[in-house]
Write a structure and sequence with these properties.
eight-stranded mixed sheet, 23 helices, about 15% strand, Bacteriocin_ass, Bacteriocin-associated integral membrane protein, signal
Amino acid sequence: MKKIFLIFSSTVVMLFLSFSLIQDKDVTIFQGYPDVNVMGVDPNKVSVHREKFEEELNRFAENHDIVLAHRIIEPNRSGKIKFKYAIYGKGNISKDLKKASQKSINYSSLAGTYLIVKGKIEPNLLVNKLSSLGYKSMVGYKISFIDNFSQIINKTARLCLFVFLITFAGLSLIYRIKGLRFADIKMISGESLAAVTLQPVKSDLISIISVNLVTWVVGLIILHLNQAFHLLLILFLSLGIIVYTVALILISFILSLLYLFSLQKSTLISLVKGKLPLKRIIAFMLVAQFAAIVTVGFAVKQFTSYDKSYQKMKQAEVKWKEASDRFVPSFGMSAAATSEKEERKREKIQYQMLNDAVENEDALLAENNLSRYEVESVVDGVHKNDYLPLGNTINVTPNYLVKQNVEISSNLKKRLQNLKPGEFGLLFPRKLKAQKKKLTKIYTKELSGMWTESKYKNIPFKAVTGYLDNNKNRFLYNGSEVADLDDQFVKDPIIVVWTPKSTRDTEGSNMYWSASLSEHVLFKGYDSSIKLLKKHHVYQWFSYVVNGRMYYLNKINGIKTQIISLLIGAIMSIITSIFMFTLMNLLYFEEFRKEIFIKRLAGMNFAEIHFNYLLAQLLVLLAATIVSFFLTKNLTISFLTTLLFLTVGALLMYRQLKHEERVAVTVMKGK
């Protein structure tokens, strides 16, 4: 049974590592190289043109016997990150680094990340060279090998790994206890104490190493078949399997030390008589049982959290189906300006592009404030449910009202579709009718303070107001990488309606629309989005264009996978814990069967006979409940987990007591 579990668990570990590495191979490989990030042209220096830049960088690479790779992320329909590279220097590079086409290279910005993919050089030398060419750069943050590896081993994987180790410990303990029964015979026959102790370790060592060696080879084959046979990925796969192998061996060794300690404390005569030193072993099992119960509570909490998120996200699937042609552009490193003046210039260009997109290309703004409250429920004195500009408010463009069939009069809808500069729509749930005047003043003041420049000082913003039906959930279009995808609806928000044109072409307005561009604005159609970016000469600032629905569905599938993993982990934790309960009861009744029967004949009741044993179990359950509550912050889950094990323990004890009653006479006769 132990070998079957060993094969199963090692295979699961190998498959998880392999497919995690395959899924994120581009990012993992990228993070493994030293790099320098070019932010753009240094405003304080004279920069060289592209041809001169590439010529000098090639010469620099050849002189230092290195190869540089400039990362280029081409926009694509799927939104998946696919890196391609412009190569500088001579020499062969890894086939995992896909060369970009000359057309992509010519169209790309010189800003971005430059990897040192071959040879060794201090990154600061490259920074100095780039500075001499008139470009501002900095050494990239180097992620350590261990940090990179820990990103692969997520919380779900750690939980399952912990459950595997507990299960292996329980199974090993059974075999050690069985071995104790034959230890006396082996020692009488002349075997030394060390030989008796180390024999199970040797057996485990052979099984563990042979099984994990086979799974490692299978893992390498999987990497090779999926074009992920890169040295760094091989190292990560090997490290993961080695960590699991070493953990199993350590558990076997620790249990053997316990085994040795038990044999040393027991006389040979007592072993011959069948008196096993089980009190210390039961103490160890109580600790393992405690860990298993806490693990179950934590696993159930994680499962319910992910399941809750999954159910909330599934509710929005129909809405996202209606928005299958919506795309969100994602900024690349080249979008970062090197000076405040350059930043203002870029913001103005992006504002003009968005004005064109909203007026002519059906671009849609759907902004909410929920991200402000991810850590704390109250920020700067404002709760997310407060009816304030930074509270329960969504900011949208007029076409949102059409797409979501917002219930307002046709005249008001038409009025909002033709907002003039300095106007904005303000739609209240009807329950706020009595507060209309007060809230209109608050929102008008807020917008005037944000966006009104000196030339508009005497021309405040004007609200076009209306009312909405109560108890309505409004769809948020949370489909970008920075959005909290769990929340796809908000109930009865105040809806603020505006456009780039209505907020006027001011510095504050430019900053707002630029910040919203890669977070809350959804463009219509992939090809038209790319065309628009190129039309306004901002294409090179973006890494890729993400399909909002596709990103959302990928996120749902990811959560679904995590739910399945957590469910498996929770089930295995429960099985492991029940197994510990069962084993402990079997040992208890086996060792103390005569004492129990004698006490029963003496007239002692059930509670008196089993007081110490029951007290130990109750203390373990109480301690596990407390720890589980602090970990999960959920009293219901902690209580139900404890109740489950109390029920299991009671059923097992009842079964064993009935069994003991049937064999009591046989025990007294010594049969």
